[in-house]
Amino acid sequence: MRTTWIAAAIALACVTAAQAEPAPKADDPRIAAILESLGKVRTVESVAISPDGKHLAWAVKTDGKPVLQVADVDGRNARRVTATKGCSETSVAWAPDSKHLAFLSDCGGKGAGVEEGKQNDIQVVDTTSKAAAQRLTHLTGYVSSLAWSADGKQLAFLYVPNATRRASATAAAKPQLGEIGVEGLEVQQVATVGASGGPVRVLTPAGLHVYEYALSADAKRIAYVAAEPPGDNNWWIAKLYVQPATEGAKGNVIVDTNALKGPLKDLQIAVPRFSPDGSRIAFIGGLMSDQGSTGGDIWTVPANGGTPEDITPDIHTTPAWLSWAADDRLLVSEQVAGASRVTSYAVPAQGAATPTTLFDLPMSLGDGRLSMSLSLTQDQSHAAFIASSFDKPYEVHVADLGAKSAPVAVTSFNAGLKPSWGKAESITWKNEGHDVQGWLLYPANYDPAKRYGMIVSIHGGPAAAVLPRWPNAGYGAAPLSALGYFVFMPNPRGSYGQGEAFVQANRKDFGYGDLRDALAGVDTIEKTHPVDDKRLGLTGWSYGGFMTMFAVTQTDRFKAAVAGAGISNWQSYYGQNLIDQWMKPYFGASVYDDPGVYGKSSAINYIKHVKTPTLVVVGERDAETPAPQSCEFWHALRAQGVPTTLIVYPGEGHGFAREASRRDVLARALAWFDTYLAAPAKGR
After folding, report:
1. Which of 13, 71, 104, 596 could form a disulfide with 78 if both were Cys (CB 3.0 to 4.6 A apart)?
2. In this structure, are residues 507 and 586 in contact, taking their beta carbons and an 8 Å threshold?
């Protein structure tokens, strides 16, 4: 859920009120120890396996910055291949010759790079020599998504000329001041540069904002997902285009889901990929609430246009990333019931693809963000990727895709780290005809002879899922477990991992079926685990914040709640954001055409029913869920006499960047739960 924060005056009133509330001490040694442990993780920003399968390259956090390293494919003999200091090196990509390595570096100067005030440029280094890296570009703007052409003669990338911010709806929005809507728009385009440098060529039209792209095998065409600006708002109505890979070429629309009839109508498109012979394009099409959080069925369409075909119509998994192999197979990473899987799909000329599971992974693919991509060798025999779980931090893994053996971790960046939270258990149950799954974290130092309170933590999205992933520093489920609670993280209807019908099961039904699924999961756990039903808590962030706000208007079962970055009133929210396109696929119409469907799921309309003490927290400059939504909910609770506190964190966005803010919100939440979920004294 993405918004541009535009109600500054209302949020200022919220801040003024919130600052009057007393703050608990944020120096609890238990909290400090958890945050310190999480902060020690060395994250791997990107990884790539060389086309010949002999080497790996990765960007790993070192002294606070990601730096480039190269190693043998088994992880041995890792070494730096640049000599920079204090610079970030990211987005590694091997050339087809398996010798040269392209990457982004912010050593060049100021601009809109990875960090505010830094400008990324493309550099290439010969990993077989001691020569310094060559800087290919002198850009002024945002750059991402490096890709080599198959002949190794050029590099393609996404580029926002003269950008002042990252090209994403998740990035902090510009201040909305003065006359709104008349300023120039920043447009992301596909560009190329020669492998030895030279002029940067912008290929796609200035009137289209490109979100993802792919080169054909002969590098003569590009396929891309794009929409007219503004890019932040229009991803949900983006189309699939194909055009020659030349300057000034016009893109031809290959798929426009808004003009279709049938199951793909009004859904979203992601991860376009040319087949090896260039005749077809595969892509993922489905109901997606956020760009980058990809999931749906796999579709193919003739590269010159035609009728899209769903080649995975009956699967009960959620493909998230794909790549063609040479023999008309698709290698796919997908989510399945709260875990990850890599599958090979044999794609016929017509009809459904045949899946073969290559390996299941009781971990989460990716670096803690949204990508589940693999890096493949040229013959698609081996893959490299980043993975973590609840008990194993991030490491680089390598898989032999032709073997039955499990992938192997080839790095040990975080070998000394141990979880401070309890063990994780996958829980499954049935509800209203759905197979549902979730994760349960046990309390730290669990004693089966004791009874514990349990906090239900609802994920954001809603088109997302809780996967077994090492947590990031800050507010989340793991710290709640570390301090003595069971923590239940359900994947109710609307989540990825059970097929596209399950993802779409909450359309026009936010807060109802998904809440019943979560409560059924609570009942399932209580039958087999020592949970005190009178000590249930509820929390969530983003869509999970909405679910928290809505749930306490529907049930008194929860004795305490913490709503992070939530939405309390879908009707006012529609008018407060500049990305209303995401809402129509879920609600079926705009709020002006069908206000009732928005009102049906608005917590504010049932506020008289709330009895649950609720802490409300949000960032002042949240660009996804505006602070006024939290203010409206807090104001209503206070008017009803329900115990509540609102904290608006100055300068923070949807995910808190400052350690002081992360520590404070965690301290406040734990103090809130400890106050209202405290175990009864013995003898009472």
Report:
1. 71
2. yes
The answer to whether the predicted template modeling score (pTM) of the entire model surpasses 0.90 is: yes
Instruction: Show Cβ contacts of residue 388 under 8 Å, excluding neighbours closer than 6 positions.
Output: 363, 364, 368, 394, 395, 468, 469, 470
Task: Check if the beta carbon of residue 62 is closer than 8 Å to that of residue 42.
Answer: yes
Residues 6+ apart with CB under 8 A from 282: 272, 273, 275, 298, 299, 300, 311, 322, 324, 330, 347
- Say yes or no to pLDDT of 472 above 90: no
Q: Is residue 370 over pLDDT 60?
A: no
CA distance 229 to 623: 18
Q: Give the contacts of 356 (CB within 8 A, at least 6 positions apart).
A: 343, 344, 345, 346
Instruction: Evaluate if residue 348 carries a pLDDT over 80.
Output: yes
Q: What letter does residue 497 receive in the DSSP assignment?
A: S
Q: What is the mean pLDDT of residues 571-580?
A: 89
Name the residue with tokens 């917590």: 603
Say what the pLDDT of residue 258 is. Answer: 94
DSSP-assigned letters across all residues of 58-80: EEEEETTEEEEEEEETTS-S-EE
Pairing assessment for the beta strands 89-94 and 79-80 based on DSSP bridges: unpaired
For residue 533, how many other CB atoms are within 10 A of its CB?
Answer: 13
Per-residue tokens: 262: 């049938």
| Separation CA 604–CA 495 (nearest Å) | 24
Among 101-110, 186-195, 324-333, 613-622, the range scoring the smallest mean pLDDT is 101-110
Q: How far apart are CA 34 and CA 420, in angstroms?
A: 7
Residues 6+ apart with CB under 8 A from 587: 507, 508, 570, 594, 597, 598
- Kind and range of the H or E run holding 639: helix 627-639
